[in-house]
User: What shape does this take?
Amino acid sequence: MDIQLQTQLFIDGQFVDSANGSTFEVENPAEAAALASVAEAKEADIDRAVRAARAAFDSDAWQRLPARERGRLLHRLADLAEADIDALARIETLQNGKPYFESRHIDLPEAIAVLRYYAGWADKIQGETLPAADGMFNDTRREPLGVVGAIVPWNFPLLLAVWKIAPALACGNTVVLKPAEETPLTALKLAELAARAGFPAGAINVVPGFGPSAGGALVRHPGVDKIAFTGSTEVGREIMRAASESLKPVSLELGGKSPNIVFADADLKAAVRGVTTGIFYGKGEVCAAGSRLFVEAGIHDEFMEQIVDRARKMTPGDPFDKGTRLGALVSKQQLDRVLHYVQAGVSEGAELLTGGVRVDRPGYFVEAAVFDKVKPEMTIAQEEIFGPVLAGLTFEDVDQAIALGNQTIYGLAAGVWTRDIKKAHRVAHGLRAGTVWVNTFNRYDPTTPFGGYKQSGFGRDLGMHALDGYTQVKSVWIDLS
Ligand code: ADP
Assistant: This one.
């Protein structure tokens, strides 16, 4: 397939070079080879993009556009993405290293579904009339914030961009999107489609560049009204600090160390499948990855055996091969990070049952790793690895399962496997996490809110809950006396 990449910044409806002409290399991690040279946004470019977004926000073309027309534009963007789905999926896999199957049959269809879901919301965002003082008419309006700065990571480059862009636009904001430096290419392609869909110039701007320079400039810019961020907890902290200068609201979807808790009464076949895909899907580079496995003591040996068996079938290899279940990690840096954590697990005394070694081929491949005899305080049970490494622990009863499940700084997601409905509810209620999956894992839907408890962040992506993060409420009083 011949694919046309976009490699310039997208500002004010045009693809342009960066002000000082600088560029950076994007790599194909499955081959450890250069993929494209992309324009690098720096402070001056971010400023230009924010000004374009601000002018677009203030323009009649946007302010007077009927809400249903914003919905129609989002539907049209979804149509164009659908027509180009193979190319988009291919670019996603080339830049991220994930299996093409995942890009083509999961990421892209989900991104399109999210665009359509928020297209439907565009003309359903409404206020209320309130019984305020006698002789007064009081109503509320849910108004857009203005210019939204969206900063997204490299693990689901297009999907997570759409998680922010779609509700932001549906609510009537304009957007400056900074994709991750590893994976800017699908976001740029989406910008091309947005222009074709008929979005006014400046409504969507895409500015690839590095975190502290491009991302930092966006966070500090006084013309940006809100930062919507998905990424690491560490960078989330930095963003919140920087945003405090201009008192910008932020929504942060951060890291996780999600537990998968398997009771002896569970459908074990389903649990084995759920636990392995829960950690190895997306190479474990998934913020909700079920990276801590808690197995009830009575079934421990049998269960771990099956997990190891299945982990060994997670063949790493060419992301475009049909048999590949584990793609390439996104970068050399990420590979080193994962190998470092495997080493930490071994040296702290956990037992490595399988995997955790680099595959002898070009590209950043590592074999699916399963640890047993992990203690809750060990590094691999506490820190987010963001790779295909499962930490196995045991528990004795429901209360201990809940306590151990909660024993990290994170609270993004959790899984529970049991046939006992009371146990399922007790654990689901007891876990401090934004999402709990019972007898399933890693399920997402445009209608369902997703976000963190504790240091996994705040604010919600998806569902009607995300609309709260892209609107503000105005109360209007009218004296009728
Ligand atoms: P990950 O661990 O998934 O790579 P990061 O949190 O490092 O996630 O990066 C997520 C996004 O945040 C990327 O687009 C990155 O460029 C951006 N970023 C990194 N550092 C900063 C920063 N100091 N200010 C703003 N954005 C940043």
Remarks:
- Residues 151-154, 178, 180-181, 210-212, 215-216, 219, 231-232, 235, 238-239 surround adenosine-5'-diphosphate (CB under 6 Å).
- The chain has a mean pLDDT of 97.
